[in-house]
């Protein structure tokens, strides 16, 4: 019976009895990301952020297409061997995904969790593999600075000023081939469990300070994770949020201290790592559902491969706003999904 | 081992070895839907389409909230007993969902498949239950005529003329409690399998004829389903698409005839059933990811309960466009996810 194979821990967490292997992954980023601290680690860096396309949206679609192409190639897989692709992006109606992956002809489960989408896609993808529903699946997410600014904030041509709490949407896409087996023992990591997050809304309304909006969701999922798994921060070499940035990081650490957990020694945020805020004018850090995806692929999985880390908790956070909800005066609720990733 | 419990049929289809029960469901609709042919079957009909809210988006959120409330109540479940909610809507960044279900505090997997979202949510929800990841999950989707017109087409105040191929977005939300058990033997149906759809793009660009844009996707998923399951149209009492409308229905039947399948005797479309096109001025039919959800809850599951039908294939279709993709001259790709539902 499959029920015994996958252990429920509380209602939100699942311990996968059968490991799911990250057979391969790939990262494709824009010029600015290529110039940042992780620049040399990405698989592909664009010369400009249009990637040969005529619109920002098409460029973002292209990011997904290229990331999938590279991930499939590295895994030695053809698109026809992939059962499902779990994919999403930040744009209205997820159009970067719709136009990015159609040509591969892989059955699609579209997912949306704002910048937490990479965590959601990996969680659902891992469950579908561990459950025996698929031998291989793809997980892919993307974001693009220019398409996101247009979608959520102001046209680039306005030259809008940004407060120091604002983050800079990463132009990038990360793709991951998950499999039930570890062909050639070349897999980059193992997904061994997850904690699904719920929406947390502290009533904050400042879309220029999304780190603070999302930190309560990260704290909620982390606390639930520690309870469900009966674990502590020091059980992980790193606890890796997606794009809280420097402001959100402070809030998260404070919120968890109040709950009795000190993650300050092991916390890392992809948004803080991907840019050099001093020289790249990115303020609080990088963001977007490409940010955590490309950092996971290029940097985090590398540490697991090289043995620097054995076990990490990957926890991308999302801010569930839209231009419409913002203009109608709604708050910015957050969500965060956690995935346990261990070295092979 | 769970691998033996869930049988993969081809790469896109899954036969759930353990049935997943639709423990309960609920439908909440607007005034116009209440006046339609299925009006008396819905659980709740709004007196107007604002449902006491001040914006269309908030009203749509309220639809989801009410549908979940009723479904939980009918199932005799509290929100705390639900592991995951699979939810989505048509609005940019799925804000109807984000603000509709937050208060329940259930871990959320946001899904997006345009008007196919109800099929996607049921497919993923059923897999998570059959895989032993959850005892109970919720699946909920919604659409709202006024929020969708604002999101995709023109402000209502324009009084825009609509061609006869256009569909009318249904104001409604359907919620479903799926469970691994059948408490009291009161469940409304069983989900026994699924076929996930891929994006199909015939290059059509007319967002006022979405039936024709989506029909090729429905044909693709149906053909794949017949192949994977080694089945024929007559194996089902009904094959039920979501919102192809009258134009899309004709295209679907023709496309499948070319592939050697005649579904004309068993095909039903929720969009055609929900309105009386002659008297309600809805042209080609109803649409939106509330359309298939409320029709499934109010009408289809009733037939299964009453024994009129034994086995249906529920196949909502989605048009993967956004205002931005449309304005940039992109085509309108389609997608369709199929779920096999049998009587208890």
Can you walk through the features of this model?
2 copies of one chain form a homodimer. Chain A contains 12 helices and 16 strands. With 344 residues, the first copy, chain A, is α/β, with parallel strands linked by helices. Chain A folds into 2 domains: 2-179, Peroxisomal Thiolase, Chain A, domain 1 (3-Layer(aba) Sandwich), CATH 3.40.47; 191-342, Stage V sporulation protein AD (Peroxisomal Thiolase, Chain A, domain 1). In chain A, strands 1, 2, 3, 4, 5, 6, 8, 9, 10, 11, 13 and 16 form a 12-stranded mixed sheet that branches. In chain A, helix 7 packs parallel to helix 8. The radius of gyration of chain A is 18 Å and the shape is globular. Chain A starts with a helix and ends with a strand. The interface between A and B is large, with 69 and 69 residues.
Mean pLDDT of chain A: 95
Contiguous low-pLDDT stretches of chain A (5 residues minimum) are none
Largest sheet of chain A: 12 strands, mixed
SS class of chain A = alpha/beta
**Outline of chain A, from the CA principal axes?**
globular
* Distance separating the two termini of chain A: 26 Å
CATH class of the largest domain in chain A: Alpha Beta
Largest interface between protein chains, with number of residues from each side: A-B, 69 and 69 residues
Q: What CATH architecture of the largest domain in chain A do you see?
A: 3-Layer(aba) Sandwich
E-strand count of chain A:
16
